[in-house]
Each structure stands twice: as structure tokens, then as C-alpha cells.
Amino acid sequence: MDQRFVMKCGGSTLAALPDSFFADLRGLQENGVKPVIVHGGGPAISETLAKLGIESEFVNGLRKTSDEVLDVVEMVLAGRINKEIVRRMLQNGAKSLGLSGVDGRLITAKPVANASEVGFVGDVTEVNAAVIEGVMAMGYIPVIAPIGIDEAGQRYNINADTAAGAVASHLGVERMIVVTDVPGIMKTVDGEKRVLSSISVAEIEAMIASGEIYGGMIPKVRAAIQCIQGDVREVVIVSGDEPNVLSKAIGDGGIGTRIVRD
Ligand SMILES: Nc1ncnc2c1ncn2[C@@H]1O[C@H](COP(=O)(O)OP(=O)(O)O)[C@@H](O)[C@H]1O
Ligand SMILES: CC(=O)N[C@@H](CCC(=O)OP(=O)(O)O)C(=O)O
Predict the structure, then answer these.
(1) CB of 223 closer than 6 angstroms to any ligand 1 atom
(2) Atom of ligand 1 at shortest distance to CA of 179?
(3) What does the pLDDT read at residue 1?
(4) pTM, rounded to two decimals
(5) Read out DSSP for 44-110?
(6) Protein residue with least CA distance to atom 16, ligand 1
(7) Which of 204, 128, 119, 120 shows the shortest CA–CA distance to 166?
(8) Ligand 2 center to residue 217 CA distance, Å?
(9) Block mean pLDDT (10 aa), the chain, length 262
(10) Which of 162, 179, 181, 217 to mutate to test the pocket of ligand 1 (most atoms within 8 A of CB)?
């Protein structure tokens, strides 16, 4: 079994993650499991932009990113949030090493198709798997901030779900775990809101079309659909509140929503 997995941790849940979450990661590391973390931090970016009086808006879930916004995105993601995660892992006995996609040209990016509307927002074209594997081989959990760079040295702001999906695809791991602030993809059935234990690509498309999947869930399911076309066997969406969520998600813990190939 592939003992590696990619975990995406959303800004919606980062600050609230209990120590037990990081202790779970340490336990996995001690047992030879090799996690790779890609993190977000959207709410912290918005908070800092507001403090600095810099306007920002989202276009179809992507932050409109000017050069000025890009400075703040990099400062918050690669600085504050990345180091906060590394620190919490250290405090809980897990060994980790923080990087942004710029370090070692970890994430090569190109402008998204609607760059004229959203500015310096990137799509991933290449992931330097050798650097990630090297960090893992040294016994560290890589913690990656979703900033990309192109051949000319231009930086890009990349949606963290998109970046995590690309890292999972390029590493060829079997599983990606998306940790967020809801227990999975929810659907109202007979007037009752339920967490779907699994969902197919066709069902996802239908729920996007009907508006039952909206907002921040859209980039997650899009990234999931993209990476299960390759080697990734399943993507699991779970809540960071659940005790030992990662151990449960990599086992058959019946947790969250599993997205698998049709
Ligand atoms: N069908 C759905 N089931 C669960 N959550 C959904 C659904 N559709 C949209 N969402 C929204 O997606 C949010 C998670 O995305 P987001 O806030 O961007 O989190 P993160 O910061 O973890 O990336 C949930 O809090 C919820 O408001
Ligand atoms: C292009 C784009 O929108 N980038 C995101 C990057 C952070 C992110 O995705 O964070 P979450 O996972 O917490 O949402 C942003 O600027 O907010």
C-alpha cells in the first residue's frame, strides 16, 4: 500500500485544529506513513488585506490578485500560516519543513485562463516531486504554501485546493484528504441534511448544476475530479473537528465523503 498521502488543510479550519490533530499526524509519521501537507489561509489573507486597507474581491471563487495583493498573499501564506503549522507540528512532536511553491521551484504555474479578470492567479503546470520526496526521505513532513512561479520568475496565487490536487497527481499518491469546516459533502434528503458517504463525478456535476454544491466546495470537488483521472484513487473530504480524522480517513473509517472514479 502507498503510505503517502496529500492532505489539504483549509483556512476555514486551521486556527481551530486541536492539538490531537497534530498528535495524530505525529503518530502516523512514527508508523511510517508519509503525509504531504498543502495549506490554505484565505480568511487570514482577507483579514490582513482589510487591516492594510487593500481592497480584494473574489471572481468565481478566485481572489482577484494584483501585485499589491500578491505581496500580502505570499506574506500570509508562506510566512504566518506556513510557520504556524510547522510550529504546531513541532509542539506535538511531528517533524516538518515548511516551503512555498517557489522554494526549489516546487510548483511551476501559468496564468489561469481568465487572468485578464483575476490577475496573478495561477494554474499548476509542474510539481517538483523530487524536492518533496527528498524532504520526506529526510524524515520531515513537507508543509507547502500554494504559491507558484513561472519560468520568468513571476509569482502566482494558487487556490489551495487546486494546488493540493496537482501535488497529489504529480506525486502519484493514492489518496488526497481535504480537511475543512464541514463533515463532508452535504445534501438535503427528505428535508434532512445528510453527509454523503461517497459521491460519483456525475452526482457532483448534478449537485453543482442544482446549486447544492456552491462556494468554497466547488474548487474542492473540481480538484478532486481532476486528480482521480490519474493515479489518485480517492479524495476524502472531512472535518478537522473529528477526533483522529486522518487515521480514520486513511483507514476505512467510514468518515467524510469519498470521491471515487465512476
Ligand atoms: N454541498 C455542500 N456540503 C458541504 N459544504 C458545502 C456544500 N456546498 C458548499 N459548501 C460550503 O463549502 C464550505 C467549505 O469551503 P471553504 O469555506 O472554502 O473551506 P476551506 O477554507 O476549508 O477551503 C463549507 O463551509 C460550506 O459553506
Ligand atoms: C487564487 C486564490 O483564490 N487563492 C487563495 C489561496 C488561499 C486558499 O485557497 O485558502 P483556503 O483553502 O483557505 O480557501 C486566496 O487568495 O484566498
Answers:
(1) no
(2) 22
(3) 53
(4) 0.97
(5) HHHHHHHHTT----EETTEE-B-HHHHHHHHIIIIIIIHHHHHHHHHHTT--EEEEETTGGG-EEEE
(6) 216
(7) 128
(8) 12
(9) 88 92 94 96 97 94 96 98 97 96 98 97 98 96 98 98 98 96 96 96 96 95 95 96 93 88 80
(10) 217
Q: 64: exposed, middle or buried (C-beta count within 10 Å: 0-12, 13-18, 19+)?
A: middle
The torsion angles phi and psi of 111, rounded to 5 degrees, stand at -65, 145
Task: Domain count for the chain, please give it.
Answer: 1
Residue 61 Cα: closest atom of ligand 2? 3
CATH classification of the domain holding 181: 3.40.1160.10
Rounded Cα distance, 187 and 203, in Å: 11
Q: Residue 207 has what pLDDT?
A: 97
Q: What 3-state DSSP class applies to 13?
A: helix
Instruction: Say if CB 211 and CB 218 are below 8 A apart.
Output: no
The confidence score (pLDDT) of residue 60 equals 87
Coil, strand, or helix at residue 254? coil
Query: 26 is in which domain, residue-wise?
Result: 4-260
Which atom of ligand 2 is nearest the CA belonging to 8? 12
CB of 240 closer than 6 A to ligand 1? no
